[in-house]
Design brief:
The complex is a heterodimer of chains A (about 280) and B (about 180). Helices cover about 35% and strands about 15% of the residues of chain A. Chain A is of the alpha/beta class and about 280 residues long. Chain A has a single domain, classed as Rossmann fold. The longest helix of chain A has 15 residues. Chain B is built from five helices and no strands. In chain B, helix 2 runs parallel beside helix 4. Chain B is elongated. The chains are: A alpha/beta (about 280), B mainly alpha (about 180). At the A-B interface, helix 2 and helix 7 of A face helix 1 of B.
Amino acid sequence: MSNVETQRICKPGDYRSDVKPIWCPGCGDYHVLLSFTRAFAELALLPEETVVVSGIGCSSRIPAYTSCYGFHGVHGRSLAVATGLKVARPDLTVVVASGDGDGYSIGGNHFIQACRRNVDLTYVVMDNRVYGMTKGQPSPTTEPDFDTALTPGGTGLSPFHPLVIALASGANFVARAFSGEPNETANILVEAIRHPGFSFVEVLSPCVTFRPDEREWKNQVHPAPVGATSDPAKAARRLMTDDGFNIGILYRGERRPYQAQIGPKSVDLSELEKDFTL
Amino acid sequence: MSKARPVVRNVVDLLTLAYRIETDAVERYRLLADQMESHNNPDLVKVFRDLTRAEQIHADEIRRLAGDIDLTRRSDALGSVWQKDESPEEVDLAAAHYLMTPWHALQLALAGEKRALAFFTSIVETAKDAKVKEMAAELVEEEAEHVNLVYRLLRKYPKPADSWSQDGDPPVAQD
């Protein structure tokens, strides 16, 4: 990369598109967008060599607001798209954006398999513990006593624990961030993108419309009391005993990332077709 | 990981930081104005656009003070200056609300100006270089004027009733 190019792209604003973001005022996702652009600038990524892939939901609007390549995919399938892209084009930096509904419910199995495969992706889930775009239904991370007109008396269901599931499934980097600290979140994203293999960053990103109580998160988050470990069992134990508001890098694994095996240079499709002839 | 405060070794560093603080504020107010435009709150659009212009004027003034020094290039080269906290004058996006009033917007601006004032005051108090101290003192005066300006603007916009956030016809009702 030449100095001229680095100079050209080193400002966070250069990673923003002309499209004005449409989220509710006060939404944490505005901050996450800032963190994305700050992290990209810190890493001096070229927009044309960076791809932001997403699924469906408020958080998944992000690709349109960046000047990088983007793919606004099918609900819950962002990781499938991103995996294919990264395996086919390992030279690209691929960042995946999702939410707790898209990522853990509709795309729950893709999440587990992506952790297991350990392809060199960075997966950012903006968790607001509610389906915001469709007006406030409970998501897999919603608390059991979330009492609304749609869930009278609460769901009574224990929430999903994404960070522990990521560890158990083989993710190579696990972190938790808070949208209200965009610089800290950008620092975590920088580390996540740099780390080889599948990096998972849960960003607590308040939905001020359907979860106004989440405005209080800014008073509840705190730095994790200890630094990252490379022992997944230790990391899982720490996560299972924390209050859900520990912020920082929690786990840095050492698994080798998945890389596609180099196959034959070309495949004769007519030969292949013969195998499938009935 | 976090730095307490960016290092100010000389007047050029100080002016670069001052310029960065103002341009960060320009960006943030523009973003808030855009948000309010999307949510059809024209009073707030006007306030945030006015604040954007005011911060741009402050940035231009600092560039004038710097003379031939290319503050834009230096500011860009700084990268992430504030590792954890945000730039002093950047208002908190999380504080935005679709029914917020000009009073709320000006409260955010006031808090930002006061943070900037405190930032430059701390440099005056701790700087060892006489020229840095002198320039920081000048910037303190500038920021004090900005604080006064926001207070004057606030006289036009009284504090709204506590019910300001109640919406008789909420756009997001679940029922």
